[in-house]
Amino acid sequence: MPPDFIAAWLNRNEIFTAMTIMEYWDGMVTTVQLVFLCLIIGLAFAVPLAILRTVKNPFVSGPVWLYTYIFRGTPLLIQLYIIYYGVAQIPGIQETFWWEIFREPFYPALLAFTLNTCAYTTEIIRGAIISTPHGEIEAAKAYGMNWIMRMRRIVLPSAARRAVQAYSNEVIFMLHSSAIASVVTIVDLTGAARNIYSRFYAPFDAFIFVALCYMVLTFILVFVFRKIENHLLRHQRPVGS
Amino acid sequence: MKKLMIAASCALAMLTSGAHADERNLRIAFDVPYEPFEYKDENGDLTGFEVDLAAAMCEEMKADCEFVIQAWDGMIPGLLARKFDLIMSSMSITPERAERVLFSEPYYNTPGGWFGPDSFNADVTDVSAMKGKTVGVQRGTTMDTFVTEEMSGVVTIKRYTTADDMVLDLEGQRLDVVFVDYPVGEQTVLSKDGFKEVGEAVKLGEGVGVAMRKRDKDVAEEVNKALRKLKEDGTYDAIMKKYFAYDVKV
């Protein structure tokens, strides 16, 4: 039960009614689902791809390079248009089981976002992997560790420490990029704001409120990443602090 | 020298204000292209039903009019920011918009039409028959309001910014049926093979009015007077016949 003064304030205005607040809430849930899923899937694929990208054999690293080049070299909006509207134009697609997936806007958007964030994350992790100090690898070799053990025990943990700051940026960018999901009829936070804006023609009320929602989400992300950084980089803290 | 310049500019100001004392300057905004209401012909000249009507109205009001092109999203903000004085760009009169702007009496009302593939056979007037269907509308239109109020919870509503994106999804079978302004549907959907009009076209809302700033009550009075005159003396009918095969007069 909200306090009386909030209820009184809500009664007096036309834009923040219980109904529009619910629309914003549903939009927030959609945004969080979409961004969370694409980040998790993107990260899960990015780690092996980043390792493949550092392999010397060009037949292994080449395709990964091409993939990251294509998805980092084109705007996410274009990728989303191609995957959402383009796929629907393939003759006969409506009769295949793929249509069950591509019919709803959620999965094409999830696919586009995942491919995009995965490409960026691959490059972030690759950068961290190739900047592993040579001495660490030599020491690991001297201990008789094989390639897999070196990766697991030395290279990846030390790369994770170097990648986490850049990756937190990528996560925040992804949250903000997800605003374009509203162009393919997904009612995310931005979609809810656009619907409400077009109903009441009050751009400030609709968009400033939604901007605040994104800021709250960003604040939570920053907080979580600070905790992760503190954990991963605890060896850098001064002794005794 | 300075005094002379001030004197000269004062004289100039008096001259110009004197010349236009009985002539009102009005800037009228249109969002083009929106055939047949406002669009550019092959010579690049602004034309269309609303443009012709606006010109006739200006003549009736003895006003000096300038036509401005403005994208739809910035229409009301632009009006309130005084970038122009009137909107004559198929803006339907709704209570929400009337909170922000002052509307004249309606000057036309086109019906909303249901359009779907040839295979579509549900009765659009029967809400229960529409259960589970996916309906496309343009965001913020009177058709959007109608579907939201009458059918939300029964059908899935998808809202689009442009009619083009909506028609793409209708072709791609993501939508079962669309509910759009009749002239738009006629041009975008009916022009394609395999699509038809479903059920009867419905007149929704009060129609389209000239939008003005709330404080411009005197302009509204003149606009209403001019529109009433045009509707009575046959000018309106002549312009309407030029662009429509059906009746849009209110």
TrEMBL record, chain A:
- Please give the PROSITE patterns that the UniProt record associates with this protein: ABC_TM1 (PS50928)
Which keywords does this Swiss-Prot/TrEMBL entry list? Amino-acid transport, Cell inner membrane, Cell membrane, Membrane, Transmembrane, Transmembrane helix, Transport
Q: Which residues form a coiled coil?
A: none
Q: Could you tell me which residue ranges the ABC transmembrane type-1 domain spans?
A: 28-225
Q: Where in the cell is it found?
A: Cell inner membrane; Cell membrane
Tell me, in one coarse class, where this protein mainly resides.
Answer: membrane
Instruction: Name a Pfam family for this protein.
Output: BPD_transp_1
Q: How does it sit in the membrane?
A: Multi-pass membrane protein
Q: Where are the transmembrane segments?
A: 32-52, 64-86, 171-194, 206-225
Is Membrane there in the keyword field? yes
User: Which InterPro entries does this one have?
Assistant: AA_ABC_transptr_permease_3TM (IPR010065), ArtM/GltK/GlnP/TcyL/YhdX-like (IPR043429), MetI-like (IPR000515)
Entry superkingdom: Bacteria
CDD domains (UniProt xref): TM_PBP2
Record family assignment: Belongs to the binding-protein-dependent transport system permease family. HisMQ subfamily.
Identify the NCBIfam families for this entry: HEQRo_perm_3TM (TIGR01726)
Q: What is this protein called?
A: Arginine ABC transporter permease protein ArtM
UniProtKB/TrEMBL annotation, chain B:
Q: Which UniProt keywords apply?
A: Signal
Q: Where is it predominantly found?
A: other
Task: Give a Pfam family name.
Answer: SBP_bac_3
Domain (Solute-binding protein family 3/N-terminal): residue spans on this chain: 25-247
Region forming the signal peptide:
1-21
Compartments in which it is found: Cell envelope
Family note: Belongs to the bacterial solute-binding protein 3 family.
Query: What is the name attached to this protein's record?
Result: Transporter substrate-binding domain-containing protein
